[in-house]
Amino acid sequence: MVSAVTTSGTDISARDLDIGYDGNTVVAGINFELTEGRAIALIGTNGSGKSTLLKTIVGLLPPIDGQIKIFGEAPGAKPKRIAYLGQFHASGFVLPLRAIDVVRMGRFPGKGLMGRMTSEDNDIVQSAMTAMGVEKLADFPLRAMSGGQQQRVYLAQVLAHRADLLVLDEPTAGLDVGGRERYLQAIKDELCRGASIVVATHDVQDEASLCHQVMLLAHRVVALGPPDQVLTPQTLLETFGIVIGGDQKRFTVLECVHPHDGHRHD
Length: 266
Ligand SMILES: Nc1ncnc2c1ncn2[C@@H]1O[C@H](COP(=O)(O)OP(=O)(O)OP(=O)(O)O)[C@@H](O)[C@H]1O
Prior knowledge:
Layout: E1 2-3, E2 10-21, E3 24-35, E4 39-44, H1 50-58, E5 65-70, E6 82-85, H2 91-94, H3 99-104, H4 108-111, H5 119-131, H6 147-161, E7 165-169, H7 177-193, E8 196-201, H8 204-208, E9 213-217, E10 221-225, H9 227-230, H10 233-240, E11 254-255
Parallel strand pairs: 1-11, 4-8, 4-9, 6-7, 7-8
Antiparallel strand pairs: 2-3, 2-5, 9-10
Helix pairs in contact: 5-6, 6-7
This protein binds adenosine-5'-triphosphate.
């Protein structure tokens, strides 16, 4: 687990939140807070409501009931401050995009489609591509890439955003062992920069080693709290219906070497 020094700002606050589609509740009564520099992992079975909660956080789905605030406002009010990685990516198949074009889009929220890329923007794009190991694929067409290569490119786009809140839906899907290590390092760096992160995942061990909180979902919140308290054989059995082994010694606290300076902007 990574600890940034400053945790003053509340980035997400949910109170008695019911989420779902067209008035049909998928998960009811969600309560949690996520503060600056902290991460929460949503872990649960297929169809348990993880993506639904992420879509509600980014403002793609209205809450059915209760309250959710993102940076103190309604979801969707501060898109520039949020980088969202959805489960499905269509842009590379609709448009003839190269990898670098996709990563550059990570800079657009701050400047708009017509904004000029500065040398600082180009440096950020390069460093995001290097972090995910796709710098040599910069001019490669996205539609000719493997699924894992595309996932690395979309993760590089998220990193290029330099967002205050990262909302990630199964970010390690399709990644090989090297890609996962790069992802984990990049996420640690984002946390140390002061970003907060909410991640839906099936990688219980990897994410639990990074995240300060875990929410176990099974069409309801089964448990919420620090990984070493939440990921017990009983709660995992309750969530997944099977016993899952876990080496809880991995849930150690890593301090940031260069903690962020708390500087954020609207
Ligand atoms: N667009 C939609 N309209 C109506 N119901 C939906 C829609 N998308 C998902 N659902 C339903 O909402 C429930 C939760 O789905 P959700 O996508 O949040 O699951 P998940 O936990 O992210 O699953 P997975 O691990 O498979 O990605 C499921 O029962 C699903 O059928």
